[in-house]
Design brief:
The structure is a homodimer. Chain A is α+β, with helices and mostly antiparallel strands. Chain A has 5 helices and 9 strands; from the N terminus they run ββββαβαββαααββ. Chain A has 2 domains: 163 residues, Nucleoside Triphosphate Pyrophosphohydrolase; 56 residues, Arc Repressor Mutant, subunit A, CATH 1.10.10. In chain A, 28% of the residues lie in helices and 28% in strands. In chain A, strands 1, 2, 3, 4, 5, 6 and 7 form a 7-stranded mixed beta sheet that branches. A two-stranded antiparallel sheet of chain A has the order 8-9. Chains A, B: Pfam families: NUDIX, WHD_NrtR. Chains A, B: This is ADP-ribose pyrophosphatase YjhB, NUDIX family.
Chain lengths: 232, 232
DNA sequence: TCAAAAGTGTTCCCTGTACACCCATGG
DNA sequence: CCATGGGTGTACAGGGAACACTTTTGA
């Protein structure tokens, strides 16, 4: 595996907050650098003649194996607090790379994106600099490098604002799901409990849900309907 | 006057949509390049060791003479459609600059900001590359270079969404104003008419307006109260 | 027949909207 | 005393929140 070379634009990067949902919990993909106990958001660089959005899609496909990903830009971070060349130097040295004047040691302005993906369909894949990439519960994140924690919070803030407006939540679920699962996604994102009856009514009143056959789980209670999102 | 040198980060710029309000109209500061009939948003570059937000504030102060400006980042644009080196080449040549391999001819990713300022307190000041900077009505903008029209639309979109949420509108008005003026600002931004009675009630119910003495305009009707925003 | 969860119904309250009415002011 | 615009009152509709009731399922 090889490092990015200077076919990339210097001083510009992107970082992505990749949300998934499983076991009633909101989860985020976090990578760990080799032997470093240093945790970070998956990010990358933009090629000289590559559209910014394409660069992010490329990176996300490599990390998740997914092709069509719901992606939204939320903020660009350009403070000097985020300039910590020692950390990147240690990461590069650990890999045995020549580090003097390496372009990755420069000061970076990073564009933050968040993605919503279906937890089950992902195969997390590490990149050249990291030895692991895994899901972490939002409320049990490890300490993240630089300002990445701030990125997570700002991404979630944006997601909360746009949750109703753009009906994003279905990106986190499989094709068919129960009303309870949909409600759990909302609750995980919003961080609060919602009234079951009112939630059901509100979702149905939007007219974007397709009702399917009931799902018999074997539980000793009424079987719930399955729903999918209409694709018009 | 001198051009920016390479103490600036290459390939990164910012552009600002500066909103003002006068004569019931929403206005935007647009600059024109020397003898070019080319119109653009005021923008600039980031110094190597300068925080992004500071760079934008610096540029806006130079252009407007104002110090404390309400400023909000709204989106970062990184498509390849915005790479039009011929235009920048002509602008530089017109100024008699050496243009071969000039860093300003490279491909740029630009961070979009919008600002809200008090129309009356501004002294628009051109920069080295432009010979004029003036207010244009939002609904009578000239044709703008590259994707700057798209920036304007996206800025206004963000402003509309955050208008109520953050109570931004007072940045566009003088210290004291009438309820009618405030309503006109809202109507100019939202692009729709609002009910006078309900608008008044809603604003007052927010508890952020301080009522002052009445303003006698000499008009043959009831004199309106003046208001200011509470600063807590 | 019982508990648990799903589905639906009812009531209350708040907010936004539309419209009506009175008040101050200068001609 | 009239036209104009400012300030306030009222009545109605729609949506959210809280809660109750019924239905389905397996044990």
């Amino acid at each position: 595996m090889s490092l990015p070379t200077n076919e990339y634009i210097p001083h510009i990067s992107y970082d992505s907050v990749i949300f998934g949902f499983s076991g009633e919990k909101l989860k985020i993909l976090i990578l760990e650098y080799h032997n470093m106990k240093t945790y970070a958001l998956p990010g990358g660089f933009v090629k000289m003649d590559e559209p910014l959005d394409d660069a992010v899609k490329r990176g996300l496909s490599e990390r998740t194996g997914l092709d069509k990903i719901y992606l939204e830009q939320f903020h660009t971070f350009g403070s000097m607090q985020r300039f910590k060349p020692e950390i990147m130097r240690r990461i590069l040295e650990e890999q045995g790379h020549q580090v003097e004047d390496h372009w990755m040691l420069g000061r970076f302005i990073t564009v933050g994106y968040y993605a919503l993906i279906n937890y089950e369909s992902v195969i997390p894949t590490p990149d050249a600099l990291s030895d692991s990439i895994d899901w972490y519960d939002y409320d049990q994140l490890p300490e993240l490098m630089m300002d990445h924690r701030e990125l997570v919070e700002k991404a979630l803030e944006h997601l909360r604002i746009h949750l109703d407006h753009k009906l994003l939540s279905f990106n986190l679920l499989p094709d068919k799901f129960t009303m309870k699962e949909l409600q759990q996604v909302y609750e995980a994102i919003l961080g609060e409990e919602l009234n079951r009856a009112n939630f059901q009514r509100k979702m149905l009143s939007l007219g974007i849900l397709q009702r399917h056959d009931k799902l018999y789980t074997g539980g000793s209670h009424k079987a719930p309907y399955l729903y999918s999102f209409k694709k018009n």
